[in-house]
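>> Question from a student workshop board

For tomorrow's exercise we were told to take the sequence and the ligand below, predict the bound structure, and bring the output to class. My setup keeps failing. Could a helper post the expected result so I can at least see what it should look like? The ligand is magnesium ion.
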Amino acid sequence: MPVLSEPSVLISADQIRSRVATMATEIERDHPGDDPIHLICVLKGGFVFLADLVRAMGDRVTMDFIAVSSYGKGTRSSGEVRLLKDLDAGLAGRDVVIVEDIVDTGLTLTYLQDILRARAPRSLRTACLLSKPSRRTVSVHVDYVGFEIPDRFVIGYGLDYDERYRNLPYIGVLDGGE
Ligand code: IMP
Ligand code: MG
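>> Workshop helper replied:
Here is what the output should look like for this input. Compare the format with yours to find the bug.
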């Protein structure tokens, strides 16, 4: 295990809290009526964002979890997406929002949007806490973006480096990282 320096803060816990509250309001505003808003958390990275987002929303929220492979060890995508854990329930006729930690190349989200759209939800939107626009290799539509960030490898608030740092309450960068 290499010795890694303390992460430096890119986006503070306070900044995240206030932005997530705004995103919760935007999602509810875009889903008028009383029907459930069904959030799909993309594991593992989306779990902290989901937990804060649902607690900023009212009682129409339901949720389910899906897991896809993204990066293995290290910081670069293989470009291949695999389904590791599927949803528990179907999506037909439901108002669905994908909740993802970050959109980088866009490959993971493109894959997810394609397979979930095929399950005939009434609506399908996407919320990402972070976006690295300069890294995009496929164009993908994201309805709610928390923060646009430069091409730095970030950790914390669900995001990992080799499975570490997911529990940091802020978004940080490792100076030793890519
Ligand atoms: P994409 O398919 O290239 O858009 O990659 C999306 C996935 O890669 C995300 O869901 C993350 O799990 C992971 N990822 C991309 N950038 C970072 C980063 O800077 N830190 C940690 N994980 C990242
Ligand atoms: Mg992810």
